[in-house]
Amino acid sequence: MRPQIVLFGDSITQQSFRSGGWGAALADIYSRKVDVVLRGYSGYNTRWALFILNQIFPLGSAKPLAAVTIFFGANDAARLEGTGKRQHVPVEEYKDNLRKMVQHIKSGSPNALVVLITPPPIDVEGRREYARSVLVHLFTRLLDAKLEPSSVILFGKCLYMAIRPRKRLIGQTKQLVYTPSSVFLANELGLPSVDLWSKMQETDGWQKKFLSDGLHLTPEGNAVVFSEVVKIFDKAGFSDLPYDFPSHSDIDAEHPEKAFLQHCPAV
Amino acid sequence: MRPQIVLFGDSITQQSFRSGGWGAALADIYSRKVDVVLRGYSGYNTRWALFILNQIFPLGSAKPLAAVTIFFGANDAARLEGTGKRQHVPVEEYKDNLRKMVQHIKSGSPNALVVLITPPPIDVEGRREYARSVLVHLFTRLLDAKLEPSSVILFGKCLYMAIRPRKRLIGQTKQLVYTPSSVFLANELGLPSVDLWSKMQETDGWQKKFLSDGLHLTPEGNAVVFSEVVKIFDKAGFSDLPYDFPSHSDIDAEHPEKAFLQHCPAV
Fold first, then answer.
1. Which position among A105, A142, B170, B247 has the lowest Cβ density within 10 Å, counted as fewest Cβ atoms?
2. B151 — pLDDT class (breaks 50, 70, 90)
């Protein structure tokens, strides 16, 4: 059976198969070698993710698990005040939850390579701009539909409530705590990790270059995640894994069965 | 267990998780509903694909198969003369091979939606241009490495042999035979099909707009495949499939377990 790489995380994982996404890029380079399985849950924090852990990684599964990326924290780090409160998870619990995930996965698949990825840096101004642009767009649509002025105002208020800038960390202070927690835990458990928070900030203009709305990734931001994860996977020998079936250039047109007998004795 | 969509085909399927690819786009829109499984085999014709059919679609598999796309023909349609000969499969055998694939899949998964996709139109001039550009690129690299002139000439000859324009149908004549075969077979078996060959040629400038090298797809070409396949899947109700786990907005922060008990009684 073909090995699997499971991508477990929040919206940044869920969106990783969009155009230019890091998940799709992994599926592409490991095609015919490993299956990349998408398990991203938009809006989830580590506390909620624990509820689904057993079903995503059932113990005693026959599927060989080559690797797992665990990529949470952006929602856990939401501010305690306002709408972010329901998603917020204190940093100590965040670290404990990550530890539980790793232990569960390792108990079922001791040889799986588990990689912890920190949340990206967040650009508060970028998130405000994004919320404003969505608001303007929706207002325009409302006005084009010629709704009663009172309805427009009311709807506008509701929209603003719904999409106002996320009550996530002002500046980077809070995020700073979640990122090292994740890296420290990886070191403590002897796991590889990607410090995305630091890595992205090495590049000038990371706010617009890597983030589309102050939080989610542009294609360039996806490329950073892809490149960092592939480094770890390739160090573990993933690119040297054999093809599932013969390359077409190794097939003898007169006796194609030969190539398949070699590669898959069961044929 | 989560249903699967298996994409079975040649290089146009294998490359479908590249940036802008139709396979990745399917994985994205059906995320949290269906797993999209990549089974693309560059250079394969239908004859060779039959050797791996049993392993890709094992009978008695517990995995629920929601759908399969079968997307072969570009290699089968290679010209009988020259290097294409080894990939060429006569059109009657091509049709028989497709029929065997459908019968095998349906015998294991009677409810699976099987979709036949015809090869795209081929732009012979585009393939020549591509081959020339690769050749020039490789020559430049050779010259930069300052090889002996004799080696450069020899290597150049070999390169040209290796990458000269594919001996695939001059013009569209041959392809015309494979495309209706695939569509007729789908009709005969009561299956949905995508007549990509005709669909793409409805757009002026399809040669450059949809094809990157006269055969493989640009992001715009990928978008055509995606759009046609999604139409069929959505007609079958795929977009109405439920999420695997609750939406984050349905989770009560004080009692998160409630949402998970509803959605996954086993928790």
1. B170
2. low
Tokens of B151: 């080696």
Same domain, A117 and A127: no
Cβ–Cβ < 8 Å for A36, A13 = no
If asked whether residues B106 and B154 sit together in one domain, one would say no
Return d(Cα B127, Cα B167) in angstroms, integer: 10
CA separation for the pair B223, A201 (Å, rounded): 34
> How many other β-carbons are positioned within 10 Å of the β-carbon of residue B128?
15
The minimal CB distance from A41 to the residues B14, B15, B245 is found for B245
Of B19, B75, B264, the CB nearest to A20: B19
pLDDT in tens, A29-41: 999 999 999 999 9
Name A217's bridge partners. Answer: A211
What is the number of other CB atoms lying within 10 angstroms of the CB of residue A132?
A: 14
Q: How far is B265 from chain A (nearest CA, A)?
A: 11
Q: Are residues B11 and B94 in the same domain?
A: yes
State pLDDT tens for residues A125-135: 887 787 777 66
* Average of per-residue pLDDT across A91-95: 94
- Whether the CB-CB separation of A160 and A135 falls below 8 Å is answered with yes
Total domains in chain A come to 2
Q: What is the pLDDT of residues A190-249, one digit of tens each?
A: 999 999 999 999 999 999 999 999 899 999 999 999 999 999 999 999 999 999 999 998
Query: Which candidate in A11, A16, A182, A193 is catalytic?
Result: A11
Asked whether residue B13 falls in the same domain as residue B80, the answer is yes
Q: Give the CATH number, domain containing residue B227.
A: 3.40.50.1110
Contact B31 A38 (CB under 8 A): yes
Residue A259 inside a domain? The answer is no
- Determine whether B130 is exposed, middle or buried from the number of CB atoms within 10 Å of its CB (0-12, 13-18, 19+): buried
Is the interface score ipTM higher than 0.85?
A: yes
Expressed as residue numbers, the domain containing B132 is 123-167
Residues A73 and A105 placed together within one structural domain of the fold? yes
For residue B75, give the chain A residue with the closest CA: A248
Q: Which residues of chain A lie closer than 8 angstroms to B21, CB-CB?
A: 24, 28
Residue A11 is a catalytic residue: yes
Helix axis angle, B91-108 to B173-189, nearest 10°? 30
Encoded tokens for A77: 């780090």
Size of interface A-B (CB pairs under 8 A): 129
Given a contact cutoff of 8 angstroms between Cβ atoms, the answer to whether B40 and B7 are in contact is yes
